[in-house]
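To fix ideas, we close by showing one paired sequence and structure record:
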Amino acid sequence: RYALRGMLQRLGCEILDLGRIADDPEQIEQALHSAATMADMVITTGGVSVGDADYIAELLGRLGTINFWKINMKPGRPLAFGQLGDAIFFGLPGNPVATVVTLYQFVRPSILKRMGKTAPWTAPLVQIPLAEDLQKKGGRTDFQRGRLLQTPSGLQVTVIGQQASHIMSGMAHADCLIILAAEAEHAKAGSLVDIQLLEGLV
Protein backbone atom coordinates (compact mmCIF):
# COMPACT_ATOMS: atom_id res chain seq x y z
CA ARG A 1 0.00 0.00 0.00
CA TYR A 2 2.80 2.44 0.87
CA ALA A 3 4.72 1.57 -2.30
CA LEU A 4 1.56 2.10 -4.33
CA ARG A 5 0.93 5.48 -2.74
CA GLY A 6 4.53 6.56 -3.31
CA MET A 7 4.48 5.58 -7.00
CA LEU A 8 1.19 7.38 -7.59
CA GLN A 9 2.43 10.51 -5.83
CA ARG A 10 5.53 10.57 -8.04
CA LEU A 11 3.25 10.44 -11.07
CA GLY A 12 1.47 13.55 -9.77
CA CYS A 13 -1.83 11.88 -8.89
CA GLU A 14 -4.30 13.22 -6.35
CA ILE A 15 -4.91 10.23 -4.08
CA LEU A 16 -8.17 9.47 -2.28
CA ASP A 17 -7.28 6.65 0.11
CA LEU A 18 -10.32 4.72 1.36
CA GLY A 19 -8.17 2.58 3.64
CA ARG A 20 -8.21 -1.16 4.16
CA ILE A 21 -11.53 -2.91 3.56
CA ALA A 22 -12.44 -6.18 5.26
CA ASP A 23 -12.97 -9.32 3.15
CA ASP A 24 -16.70 -8.74 3.23
CA PRO A 25 -18.57 -8.42 -0.10
CA GLU A 26 -21.04 -5.82 1.19
CA GLN A 27 -18.29 -3.57 2.55
CA ILE A 28 -16.25 -3.97 -0.63
CA GLU A 29 -19.28 -3.16 -2.79
CA GLN A 30 -19.96 0.01 -0.80
CA ALA A 31 -16.31 1.05 -1.07
CA LEU A 32 -16.23 0.44 -4.84
CA HIS A 33 -19.41 2.45 -5.34
CA SER A 34 -18.04 5.35 -3.26
CA ALA A 35 -14.69 5.29 -5.04
CA ALA A 36 -16.28 5.30 -8.50
CA THR A 37 -18.29 8.44 -7.67
CA MET A 38 -15.22 10.32 -6.41
CA ALA A 39 -12.35 9.32 -8.69
CA ASP A 40 -11.34 9.07 -12.35
CA MET A 41 -9.55 5.80 -11.67
CA VAL A 42 -10.15 3.18 -8.98
CA ILE A 43 -7.25 0.95 -7.93
CA THR A 44 -7.56 -1.94 -5.49
CA THR A 45 -4.97 -4.42 -4.25
CA GLY A 46 -5.78 -7.98 -3.25
CA GLY A 47 -9.01 -9.93 -3.44
CA VAL A 48 -8.69 -10.39 -7.20
CA SER A 49 -7.70 -14.06 -7.42
CA VAL A 50 -9.97 -17.11 -7.03
CA GLY A 51 -9.86 -17.78 -3.28
CA ASP A 52 -12.87 -17.94 -0.98
CA ALA A 53 -12.33 -14.32 0.11
CA ASP A 54 -11.55 -12.91 -3.36
CA TYR A 55 -14.61 -10.89 -4.36
CA ILE A 56 -13.25 -8.15 -6.64
CA ALA A 57 -13.76 -9.80 -10.04
CA GLU A 58 -17.26 -10.96 -9.12
CA LEU A 59 -18.28 -7.51 -7.88
CA LEU A 60 -16.73 -5.74 -10.86
CA GLY A 61 -18.68 -8.02 -13.19
CA ARG A 62 -21.90 -7.08 -11.40
CA LEU A 63 -21.28 -3.37 -10.80
CA GLY A 64 -19.37 -2.52 -13.96
CA THR A 65 -17.54 -4.15 -16.85
CA ILE A 66 -14.60 -6.55 -16.89
CA ASN A 67 -12.42 -5.95 -19.95
CA PHE A 68 -9.89 -8.59 -18.96
CA TRP A 69 -8.97 -10.67 -15.92
CA LYS A 70 -5.84 -12.82 -15.45
CA ILE A 71 -2.82 -12.24 -17.64
CA ASN A 72 0.11 -14.38 -18.72
CA MET A 73 2.83 -12.79 -16.58
CA LYS A 74 4.77 -13.43 -13.38
CA PRO A 75 4.38 -11.82 -10.96
CA GLY A 76 0.94 -10.33 -11.50
CA ARG A 77 -1.29 -12.97 -13.08
CA PRO A 78 -4.53 -12.12 -11.20
CA LEU A 79 -4.94 -8.61 -12.63
CA ALA A 80 -8.43 -7.29 -13.41
CA PHE A 81 -9.16 -4.32 -15.64
CA GLY A 82 -12.50 -2.77 -16.48
CA GLN A 83 -14.94 0.08 -16.01
CA LEU A 84 -16.71 1.03 -12.80
CA GLY A 85 -19.27 3.71 -13.57
CA ASP A 86 -17.34 6.55 -15.19
CA ALA A 87 -14.07 5.42 -13.61
CA ILE A 88 -11.40 3.15 -15.03
CA PHE A 89 -10.80 0.20 -12.73
CA PHE A 90 -7.60 -1.72 -11.99
CA GLY A 91 -7.69 -4.63 -9.56
CA LEU A 92 -4.05 -5.36 -8.74
CA PRO A 93 -2.72 -8.51 -7.05
CA GLY A 94 -2.19 -8.42 -3.30
CA ASN A 95 1.44 -9.56 -3.17
CA PRO A 96 3.53 -6.38 -2.95
CA VAL A 97 5.99 -7.07 -5.78
CA ALA A 98 3.12 -8.09 -8.07
CA THR A 99 1.37 -4.84 -7.13
CA VAL A 100 4.40 -2.75 -8.10
CA VAL A 101 5.10 -4.64 -11.35
CA THR A 102 1.49 -4.49 -12.59
CA LEU A 103 1.20 -0.82 -11.67
CA TYR A 104 4.36 -0.12 -13.66
CA GLN A 105 3.24 -2.14 -16.69
CA PHE A 106 -0.46 -1.23 -16.85
CA VAL A 107 -1.59 1.52 -14.47
CA ARG A 108 1.28 3.95 -15.09
CA PRO A 109 0.81 4.03 -18.90
CA SER A 110 -2.94 4.54 -18.46
CA ILE A 111 -2.38 7.44 -16.05
CA LEU A 112 0.21 9.10 -18.31
CA LYS A 113 -2.14 8.85 -21.30
CA ARG A 114 -5.05 10.33 -19.34
CA MET A 115 -2.79 13.15 -18.17
CA GLY A 116 -2.17 14.07 -21.79
CA LYS A 117 1.48 13.03 -21.80
CA THR A 118 3.10 12.36 -25.16
CA ALA A 119 3.41 8.71 -26.22
CA PRO A 120 5.06 6.29 -25.68
CA TRP A 121 3.50 5.82 -22.25
CA THR A 122 5.22 2.52 -21.48
CA ALA A 123 8.85 2.50 -20.39
CA PRO A 124 11.16 1.62 -23.31
CA LEU A 125 12.91 -1.74 -23.54
CA VAL A 126 16.71 -1.76 -23.55
CA GLN A 127 18.84 -4.83 -24.28
CA ILE A 128 21.68 -5.48 -21.81
CA PRO A 129 23.95 -8.56 -21.42
CA LEU A 130 23.25 -10.84 -18.46
CA ALA A 131 25.90 -11.16 -15.78
CA GLU A 132 24.88 -14.75 -14.92
CA ASP A 133 22.67 -17.61 -16.09
CA LEU A 134 18.95 -17.26 -15.36
CA GLN A 135 16.36 -20.01 -15.06
CA LYS A 136 12.57 -19.74 -15.25
CA LYS A 137 9.57 -21.91 -15.95
CA GLY A 138 8.15 -21.58 -19.44
CA GLY A 139 4.61 -20.40 -20.04
CA ARG A 140 4.52 -16.88 -18.60
CA THR A 141 6.41 -13.66 -19.27
CA ASP A 142 8.69 -13.20 -16.27
CA PHE A 143 9.57 -9.84 -14.70
CA GLN A 144 12.60 -10.25 -12.43
CA ARG A 145 14.09 -7.53 -10.26
CA GLY A 146 17.52 -6.54 -11.51
CA ARG A 147 20.39 -4.16 -11.04
CA LEU A 148 22.80 -2.72 -13.59
CA LEU A 149 26.52 -3.36 -13.09
CA GLN A 150 29.46 -1.54 -14.64
CA THR A 151 32.05 -4.24 -15.43
CA PRO A 152 35.41 -4.18 -17.28
CA SER A 153 33.59 -5.59 -20.32
CA GLY A 154 30.81 -3.00 -20.16
CA LEU A 155 27.34 -2.63 -18.69
CA GLN A 156 25.63 -5.84 -17.51
CA VAL A 157 22.50 -6.68 -15.55
CA THR A 158 22.14 -9.08 -12.63
CA VAL A 159 19.19 -10.43 -10.67
CA ILE A 160 18.95 -8.92 -7.21
CA GLY A 161 17.30 -10.44 -4.15
CA GLN A 162 14.81 -13.27 -3.90
CA GLN A 163 12.21 -13.23 -6.66
CA ALA A 164 9.13 -14.40 -4.73
CA SER A 165 6.26 -11.94 -5.21
CA HIS A 166 5.78 -11.36 -1.46
CA ILE A 167 9.42 -10.34 -0.82
CA MET A 168 9.84 -6.59 -1.31
CA SER A 169 13.50 -6.18 -0.31
CA GLY A 170 14.82 -6.99 -3.79
CA MET A 171 12.54 -4.38 -5.34
CA ALA A 172 13.84 -1.77 -2.91
CA HIS A 173 17.38 -2.25 -4.29
CA ALA A 174 16.47 -2.86 -7.95
CA ASP A 175 16.93 -0.24 -10.65
CA CYS A 176 15.37 -2.24 -13.48
CA LEU A 177 13.11 -5.13 -14.41
CA ILE A 178 14.57 -8.03 -16.41
CA ILE A 179 11.92 -9.30 -18.83
CA LEU A 180 12.08 -12.92 -19.98
CA ALA A 181 9.68 -14.05 -22.71
CA ALA A 182 6.93 -16.57 -21.94
CA GLU A 183 8.47 -19.28 -24.12
CA ALA A 184 11.96 -18.93 -22.57
CA GLU A 185 13.08 -21.37 -19.88
CA HIS A 186 16.60 -20.06 -19.38
CA ALA A 187 18.98 -17.31 -20.44
CA LYS A 188 22.75 -17.70 -20.57
CA ALA A 189 25.28 -15.31 -19.07
CA GLY A 190 26.36 -12.83 -21.73
CA SER A 191 23.13 -13.12 -23.73
CA LEU A 192 21.10 -9.98 -24.34
CA VAL A 193 17.87 -9.59 -22.37
CA ASP A 194 15.22 -6.89 -22.37
CA ILE A 195 15.15 -4.61 -19.35
CA GLN A 196 13.01 -1.67 -18.28
CA LEU A 197 14.55 1.02 -16.10
CA LEU A 198 12.43 1.81 -13.05
CA GLU A 199 12.99 5.55 -13.50
CA GLY A 200 13.07 6.30 -9.79
CA LEU A 201 9.46 5.24 -9.22
CA VAL A 202 10.29 2.69 -6.51
Notes: The mean pLDDT is 91. Helices lie at 2-10, 25-38, 56-63, 96-114, 169-173. The first strand starts at residue 41 and ends at 45.
